[in-house]
């Protein structure tokens, strides 16, 4: 039916909303097009650009528009919307609702609100789902005042909110840190005929955890369970986040046990949050047990946490030698996954191998560290030289000394003294003399001298 065949009221209805949609399309078009990178099919474009768009009824139009929105084909949905005025179809309640949903999905709740206003002006009664979609969109954008304005409109026209509507408001309040208001709203919900669900409690728990009030969040969890509600993994993860932020990672171990007892299987986020908290607050041995559990479950651990665990284990292995093997296994795992071991991690691994008397591995990783472009600290070189000399491996110690000098790390007295002493004992006099000369050039006065120098001193005396 052409536009000229529409009644005056129908024409006003079509043309009153079209400029609004066209303006919004122009405003948001570039953002949506580039974000989704969709390609128009020539057949579809030809169809929607035809006189009636190929639609016999408004139901046909609604069906096509809904399909595009559900498929996240927002560019095509906006193109179809901008052409709608030429089809001679009168938008109905469902058309407006789809448009509200579309603009909420592309993060433009202001345009969606204007469409809702048009809908109300023309006598349509939006369903609670339409109101809730718009309230949720405003809340996600942190625009709580506008969300409450929509909520007030619901009351004015007698549209009863659902628990999902309230859950959106609770999330919006907690997103802005207004947890006391969220808690008051929860109390009002419990006093009403609407029953809170687990998502209601999870939203308020999340708010408490974000402001360092995990104990109150735990009380809400217990209250929800007493009401017969079943916490899900998101509910528990909220508490793990709270414990992490408050420096209480060990409380997370008990919570993990409780989860399993309640037959709620922890997910990757659960374990990652717990591991991150344990590492940040220095609970390395407990973190190691969680790490091993994650490996059994085939959960991947990110590079940053692997480096933190590696450094922690290496430092602990100075006193607890049994952890050296665990540190090495973490190191090997990182290498097998092609994760980048940071310079501090490499140096601590080398130090750990030295303390564990795994000198070949220490030497191997020192050369690997240099090969990939890291510059080891003077202490790392000197420590490896010291241990090699103490083990009588002076030839290998020289293999450390040479790259040390090439990397511009000036040795202190200790490595010079150790090397010269070992070279004297092995009667490698020329090498000892060379090192003695290098020491003097570096301004280092060594306690030990080459044997030939000592004999010269004896003769002069």
Automatic annotation (TrEMBL):
<feature type="repeat" description="PPR">
    <location>
        <begin position="127"/>
        <end position="161"/>
    </location>
</feature>
<feature type="repeat" description="PPR">
    <location>
        <begin position="197"/>
        <end position="231"/>
    </location>
</feature>
<dbReference type="InterPro" id="IPR050872">
    <property type="entry name" value="PPR_P_subfamily"/>
</dbReference>
<dbReference type="InterPro" id="IPR002885">
    <property type="entry name" value="PPR_rpt"/>
</dbReference>
<dbReference type="InterPro" id="IPR011990">
    <property type="entry name" value="TPR-like_helical_dom_sf"/>
</dbReference>
<dbReference type="GO" id="GO:0006397">
    <property type="term" value="P:mRNA processing"/>
</dbReference>
<dbReference type="Pfam" id="PF01535">
    <property type="entry name" value="PPR"/>
</dbReference>
<feature type="repeat" description="PPR">
    <location>
        <begin position="232"/>
        <end position="266"/>
    </location>
</feature>
<dbReference type="Pfam" id="PF12854">
    <property type="entry name" value="PPR_1"/>
</dbReference>
<dbReference type="GO" id="GO:0005737">
    <property type="term" value="C:cytoplasm"/>
</dbReference>
<feature type="repeat" description="PPR">
    <location>
        <begin position="267"/>
        <end position="301"/>
    </location>
</feature>
<feature type="repeat" description="PPR">
    <location>
        <begin position="377"/>
        <end position="411"/>
    </location>
</feature>
<comment type="similarity">
    <text>Belongs to the PPR family. P subfamily.</text>
</comment>
<feature type="repeat" description="PPR">
    <location>
        <begin position="162"/>
        <end position="196"/>
    </location>
</feature>
<dbReference type="GO" id="GO:0003729">
    <property type="term" value="F:mRNA binding"/>
</dbReference>
<dbReference type="Pfam" id="PF13041">
    <property type="entry name" value="PPR_2"/>
</dbReference>
<feature type="repeat" description="PPR">
    <location>
        <begin position="92"/>
        <end position="126"/>
    </location>
</feature>
<feature type="repeat" description="PPR">
    <location>
        <begin position="342"/>
        <end position="376"/>
    </location>
</feature>
<protein>
    <submittedName>
        <fullName>Uncharacterized protein</fullName>
    </submittedName>
</protein>
<keyword id="KW-0677">Repeat</keyword>
<dbReference type="Pfam" id="PF13812">
    <property type="entry name" value="PPR_3"/>
</dbReference>
């Amino acid at each position: 039916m052409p536009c000229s065949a529409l009644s005056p009221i129908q024409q006003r209805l079509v043309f009153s909303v079209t400029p609004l949609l066209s303006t919004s399309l122009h405003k948001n078009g570039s953002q949506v097009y580039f974000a989704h990178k969709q390609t128009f099919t020539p057949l579809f474009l030809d169809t929607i650009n035809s006189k009636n768009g190929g639609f016999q009824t408004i139901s046909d139009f609604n069906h096509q528009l809904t399909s595009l929105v559900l498929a996240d084909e927002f560019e095509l949905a906006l193109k179809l919307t901008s052409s709608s005025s030429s089809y001679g179809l009168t938008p109905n309640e469902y058309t407006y609702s789809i448009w509200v949903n579309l603009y909420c999905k592309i993060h433009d709740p202001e345009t969606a609100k204007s469409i809702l206003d048009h809908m109300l002006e023309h006598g349509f009664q939006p369903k609670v789902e339409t109101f809730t979609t718009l309230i949720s969109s405003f809340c996600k954008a942190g625009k709580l005042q506008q969300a409450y304005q929509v909520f007030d409109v619901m009351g004015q026209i007698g549209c009863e909110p659902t628990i999902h509507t309230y859950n959106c408001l609770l999330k919006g309040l907690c997103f802005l840190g207004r947890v006391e208001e969220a808690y008051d709203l929860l109390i009002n919900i419990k006093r009403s005929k609407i029953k809170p669900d687990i998502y209601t409690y999870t939203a308020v728990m999340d708010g408490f955890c974000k402001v360092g009030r995990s104990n109150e969040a735990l009380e809400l969890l217990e209250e929800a369970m007493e009401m017969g509600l079943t916490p899900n993994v998101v509910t528990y993860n909220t508490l793990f986040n709270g414990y992490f932020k408050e420096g209480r990672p060990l409380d997370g171990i008990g919570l993990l046990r409780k989860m399993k007892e309640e037959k709620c299987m922890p997910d990757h986020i659960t374990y990652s949050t717990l591991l991150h908290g344990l590492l940040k607050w220095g609970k390395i041995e407990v973190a190691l047990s969680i790490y091993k559990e994650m490996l059994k479950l085939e959960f991947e651990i990110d590079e940053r946490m692997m480096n933190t665990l590696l450094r922690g284990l290496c430092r602990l292995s100075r006193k607890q030698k049994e952890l050296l093997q665990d540190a090495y296994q973490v190191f090997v795992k990182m290498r097998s996954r092609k994760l980048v071991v940071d310079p501090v991690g490499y140096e601590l691994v080398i130090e750990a191998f030295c303390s564990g008397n795994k000198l070949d591995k220490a030497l191997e990783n020192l050369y690997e560290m240099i090969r990939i472009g890291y510059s080891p600290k003077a202490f790392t070189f000197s420590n490896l030289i010291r241990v090699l000399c103490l083990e009588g491996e002076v030839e290998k110690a020289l293999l450390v000394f040479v790259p040390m000098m090439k990397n511009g790390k000036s040795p202190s007295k200790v490595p010079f003294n150790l090397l010269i002493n070992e070279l004297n004992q092995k009667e490698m006099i020329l090498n000892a003399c060379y090192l003695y000369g290098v020491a003097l050039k570096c301004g280092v006065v060594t306690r030990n001298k080459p044997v030939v120098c000592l004999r010269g001193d004896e003769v002069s005396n």
